[in-house]
């Protein structure tokens, strides 16, 4: 049947569902510039053919991708379990960086280890003209003991001094990938393998970045200060991911900020030590620290707008070594997270105010003792 454009209609007569409708006034020309009644016999058939070809190409690429994932998954799972069983703390990811660098070199990447920081990793794969895409993963683990009972569970212990703030040179800490960076690294490597395998489907440059010391901050900053995007191709687009508690196979995306800025602080309340039987002679930093922990939560629940994310968490509270002695200081470690500069400013100012107010409590000054002092300083800042 012959198909024509009609002045009295805004769509083609008998147009197939897959053909785009032509909207507008009755006198508007068809999309290709023909006169309204000019014969376009077979035009929609050619359009359908293009759609079917594109769909077929996409389906073939998707099917090929599925096959490659099935082929490579067993080996990637082995890499994941190896990384899981051998975690390393920030700036000490020597084995991890070496392992991933070897895998990238096998794929044909130009690999640099130690750029800006001793264990930082950068890989570049060039595949003709096109955009530069960055894929980033973290490398480090946490000072935690794994209690999963898995065959690949970490039993690694390292000197406690590898974690900032620990000064006991005789102590050791367990290390575990409790934040999922082992999964991130295996996924990062798998993405690199698949993209190289399917390089005939794309053109451009891949920039793979392994960030050290993400948990304690400093790794990304060191790489940027060393000129990461000056000495290597500057990415047009960057991708990263983070596992969460959703069911396996579910992927979550959203507009705007997905994760928050992270600031970490060390807070010290300095008091006056005394025997536990004579608290009236002390300025008890434990009482003051405990009061701070309680009061600071009122900032989050009563000063911050509840419509905007923000949280302050005290993750470490350390004071004296004995139960019958009041120490002369208490040390707290905090993390503060926010998603906007306004919320970050509010929480930071409030945290400083609450710390100073607690340290200068009138009930301490009335005991004929000097007021204790609170020292608050940023240990590290990480923005994402």
TrEMBL record:
It holds the Pfam family Peptidase_M20. The keyword Magnesium does not apply. InterPro entries: Amidohydrolase (IPR017439), Bact_exopeptidase_dim_dom (IPR036264), Peptidase_M20 (IPR002933). Residues 29-41 have a biased composition (Basic and acidic residues). Residues 1-41 are annotated as: Disordered. This is Amidohydrolase. GO terms for molecular function: hydrolase activity. It comes from the Bacteria.
């Amino acid at each position: 049947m012959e198909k024509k454009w009609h002045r009295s209609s805004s769509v083609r007569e008998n147009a197939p569902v897959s053909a785009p409708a032509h909207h507008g006034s009755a006198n508007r020309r068809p999309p290709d510039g023909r006169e309204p009644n000019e014969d376009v016999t077979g035009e929609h058939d050619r359009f359908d053919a293009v759609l079917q070809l594109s769909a077929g190409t996409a389906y073939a690429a998707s099917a090929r991708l599925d096959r490659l994932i099935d082929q490579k998954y067993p080996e990637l799972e082995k890499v994941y379990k190896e990384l899981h069983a051998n975690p390393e703390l920030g700036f000490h990811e020597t084995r991890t960086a070496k392992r991933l660098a070897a895998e990238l070199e096998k794929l044909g990447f130009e690999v640099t280890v130690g750029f800006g920081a001793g264990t930082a990793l950068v890989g570049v794969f060039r595949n003709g003209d096109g955009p530069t895409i960055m894929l980033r993963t973290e490398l480090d683990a946490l000072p935690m003991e794994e209690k999963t009972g898995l065959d690949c569970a970490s039993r690694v212990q390292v000197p406690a001094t590898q974690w900032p703030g620990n000064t006991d040179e005789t102590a050791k800490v367990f290390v575990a990938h409790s934040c999922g960076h082992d999964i991130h690294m295996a996924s990062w490597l798998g993405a690199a393998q698949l993209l190289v395998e399917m390089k005939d489907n794309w053109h451009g440059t891949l920039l793979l970045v392994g960030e050290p010391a993400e948990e304690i901050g400093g790794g990304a900053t060191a790489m940027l200060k060393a000129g990461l995007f000056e000495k290597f191709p500057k990415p047009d687009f960057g991708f990263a991911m983070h596992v969460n508690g959703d069911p396996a196979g579910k992927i979550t995306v959203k507009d705007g900020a997905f994760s928050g800025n992270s600031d970490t602080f060390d807070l010290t309340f300095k008091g006056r030590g005394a025997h536990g039987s004579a608290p009236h002679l002390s300025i008890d930093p434990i009482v003051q620290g405990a009061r701070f922990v309680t009061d600071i939560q009122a900032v989050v629940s009563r000063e911050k707008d509840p419509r905007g994310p923000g949280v302050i968490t005290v993750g470490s509270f350390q004071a004296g070594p004995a139960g019958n002695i009041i120490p002369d200081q208490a040390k707290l470690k905090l993390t503060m997270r926010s998603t906007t500069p306004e919320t970050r400013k509010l929480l930071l100012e409030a945290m400083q105010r609450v710390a100073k107010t607690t340290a200068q409590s009138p009930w301490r000054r009335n005991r004929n003792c000097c007021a204790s002092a609170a020292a608050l300083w940023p240990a590290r800042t990480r923005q994402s």
